Amino acid sequence: MGMFRGLGRRTRRLKTYLKRRTRTHPDRRPELDGKSFPSLFRKRAVVFTDTADFTLRTARDGILHFLMVFDRVAEIAGRVVRQGGGELVKVEGDSLLLRYDDADAACRGVLAIDDAIQAYNADRPENEQVHFSYGVGYGDILDTDEDMFGLEVNLASKIGEDLAEPGEALLTPAAAAALEPRLLKRVVPYRIVTFGRQAIPVSRLRLRGSVRRGKVRRRPETP
């Protein structure tokens, strides 16, 4: 079993190229990569969601309860994504990987998803509520039929999972720079983040809901 799922055209093209690259002398691979870049990469926006306190909630309520809740929320999010012209590429653990044509559509999608989750949570008990954090990237993406690869994918995953609080959406510099003026008004500086020796300015997209600092509330202990 290989690392690439699906048998679609984009996946087959990548696998064919990688076999060709394997047969190519290492000194010639950079030139080959450059020539093949236009056929493999596309400008795309990526959204990576992360669910607050997956491990804690699983330990507290059990994996079956969490899966019941998350499956329902994934269905709701997938429907909202499709309505906004996006695609739910895959579900990975407690996270969603979403694909959009541009950064504007991705940010509008995040706003719509978060609104839908807030509405879902409104009449649910606390242990059935879900809170997402979001990372948004934009740039040259190597996207197969059922996955996405590239620096902006890695950055969106990192800031969405490790930095963003529940109810918070963070943007890479490329994603923020690609926004139309109306959406850009919703963006504020977050902070400079260092990855290895590289420092990048991360921005925050103001959502309509509130940011939940820290983790999901625990049930009060019985005296």
Number of domains: 1
β-sheet strand percentage: 25-35%
Order of helices and strands: HHEHHEEHEEHEHHEE
End-to-end C-alpha gap: 52 Å
Mind describing the biggest β-sheet? 8 strands, mixed
Helix fraction?
40-55%
Any idea what the shape is? globular
Examine the secondary-structure arrangement and name the CATH architecture. 2-Layer Sandwich
The oligomeric state is single chain
Point out poorly predicted stretches.
215-223
Mean pLDDT: 90
Spatial extent as radius of gyration: 19 Å
Structure overview:
With 223 residues, this protein is an alpha+beta fold. The chain has one domain: Alpha-Beta Plaits (2-Layer Sandwich). It has helices spanning 9-23, 29-40, 54-61, 63-83, 103-122, 151-163, 173-177, 181-184, and strands at residues 42-51, 87-92, 95-100, 132-143, 148-149, 169-171, 187-195, 198-205. Strands 1, 2, 3, 4, 5, 6, 7 and 8 form an eight-stranded mixed beta sheet that branches. β4 and β5 (148-149) form a beta hairpin. α1 packs antiparallel against α2 (29-40) and α3 crosses α4. The longest helix is centred in the first third of the chain and has 21 residues, at 63-83. The radius of gyration is 19 Å and the shape is globular. Mean pLDDT is 90; it is low at 215-223.
